[in-house]
Amino acid sequence: MEIISFLAIFLLFFVLLLSLFASWWFISMLIPIFLKGGPFVPTNWQRVEQMIRIAHITPQDHVIDLGSGDGRILLAALQAGAKKAEGYEIHRGLVSLSRWMAKKKKLENRLTIYCRSFWKADLKNCDVIFLYQLPLSMKLLKEKILKEAKPSARIVSNGFCLPDWIPQQKEGDIYLYQVPQKEN
Ligand SMILES: C[S@@+](CC[C@H](N)C(=O)[O-])C[C@H]1O[C@@H](n2cnc3c(N)ncnc32)[C@H](O)[C@@H]1O
């Protein structure tokens, strides 16, 4: 009898913990909506490969993902030879997950994930910017990129285009852009 009540209490405690974790995860998923960003929908692996190919990663490249999710694109870019990768991600659980994945793949020395809004990201030194955000933030992202990123930086956007900017390349709904030279 004692064992049964012990098991019942243990099970109850476990379910409570699980539902607390699930609620925290779910509420964190809603935060991006208030920060003009999209919720976590990971890019599928086939598209990750496609985006890395389109980006033409070189060993000199410093790559950045604005809303890096579980870090899969950044890790793939490092595996493709990028020098350094940086992610901005607002969901603390995803930040921890990407740092853990980087450790597992022994790439942690070349990866930095900031748990902060990508609107605060410093774009001036990056060579490649990865995006997978909602159309409502694409206009503002375009303005930020054009203002801050260096000429010739490449942008690879999954799913949605940057408005009024003709892509250099388009494969389905993956778009490649290049920041133009600044006019004097
Ligand atoms: C569609 S997911 C893309 C994830 C990842 N880049 C990928 O392709 O697998 C968008 C991500 O952006 C994050 N996000 C949305 N708004 C953000 C903001 N303002 N600052 C930082 N991250 C944000 C979300 O938490 C989510 O993980």
Strand order of the largest sheet: 3-2-1-4-5-7-6
Molecular shape = elongated
Structural class: alpha/beta
- Give the low-confidence spans: none
Question: Strand portion, in percent?
Answer: 15-25%
Find the CATH topology of the largest domain.
Rossmann fold
CATH superfamily of the largest domain: Vaccinia Virus protein VP39
Which architecture of the largest domain does the CATH hierarchy give at level 2? 3-Layer(aba) Sandwich
What's the structural domain tally?
A: 2
Description:
- By secondary structure, this protein is of the alpha/beta class.
- The chain folds into 2 domains: 1-34; 45-178, Vaccinia Virus protein VP39 (Rossmann fold, 3-Layer(aba) Sandwich).
- It is built from 5 helices and 7 strands, in the order ααβαβαββαβββ.
- A 7-stranded mixed beta sheet has the order 3-2-1-4-5-7-6, with helices on one face.
- Helix 2 (45-55) packs across helix 3.
- The longest helix has 33 residues, at 2-34.
- The protein is elongated, with a radius of gyration of 19 Å.
- The mean pLDDT is 93.
- Bound molecules: S-adenosylmethionine.
- The site of S-adenosylmethionine (SAM) has 24 residues, from helix 3.
Task: Briefly characterize the structure.
The chain is of the alpha/beta class and 184 residues long. The chain has 5 helices and 7 strands, in the order ααβαβαββαβββ. The protein has helices at residues 2-34, 45-55, 72-79, 92-104, 135-148; strands at residues 62-66, 84-88, 111-114, 128-131, 154-158, 169-171, 174-178.
List keywords for this structure.
184 residues; alpha/beta; Rossmann fold; seven-stranded mixed beta sheet; 5 helices; 43% helix; elongated; binds S-adenosylmethionine
